[in-house]
What we know:
Elements: H1 2-43, H2 48-57, H3 62-76, E1 79-80, E2 84-86, E3 91-92, E4 98-99, E5 103-105, E6 110-111, E7 114-116, E8 121-122, E9 127-128, E10 151-153, E11 158-159, E12 164-165, E13 174-175, E14 180-181, E15 189-192, E16 197-201
Helix pairs in contact: 1-3
Amino acid sequence: MASKDAFAMGEIDLRRLLKRFAFIFSLALTSPLILMAWIEKACSNSESIFVALSQLLSLIPGKIGSYLRSAYYFGTIEKCSWEVHIGFGTFFSHRSAILGSNVAIGAYCIIGTVEIANEVMMASHVSVTSGKRQHFDDEGKISSNVRLDRVTIGKKTWIGEGAIVLSDVGSNCVVSAGTVVANNIPNSRLVAGNPGKIIRELEK
């Protein structure tokens, strides 16, 4: 039994080592794009080049595409673990995002100003906006100045297919498919509907 456990651990370590080499290679390939995004950030407040490159990389399929996207965001957004999966068609619309380790994001997602904790999983076609007051001032009037609020998603939370997240979601939550999260959700809750409502508390 001990030898089998040791073999399994060795296999896991080898797999992680190979993933690290693949990430480093991807980082080298995307370094010119990362440099372009850095230059844009140093010279202006614009994010047009950052977003354009994000959209370009989102169109590369398979594991290669996921590695290239994770490497690009590792070098460009506020904070990003190297151990993430970012699906085909998915891109980040702002640099001010934070992405924890072992996060898995499905295909065709749009991610704004957000802090995603460790081990969060998202299905496809999920939108996480930069808050719900982007075009309103503090008095609730329409403003030409875009306001970006950071949305947080707690660790080990699952976001279902087609959900729209406008407010914070706690840890260990389940957001059902098609849910619109318009108000903050505490830890360990099942949420569903439009607008999203708490269905029940989950076991911690």
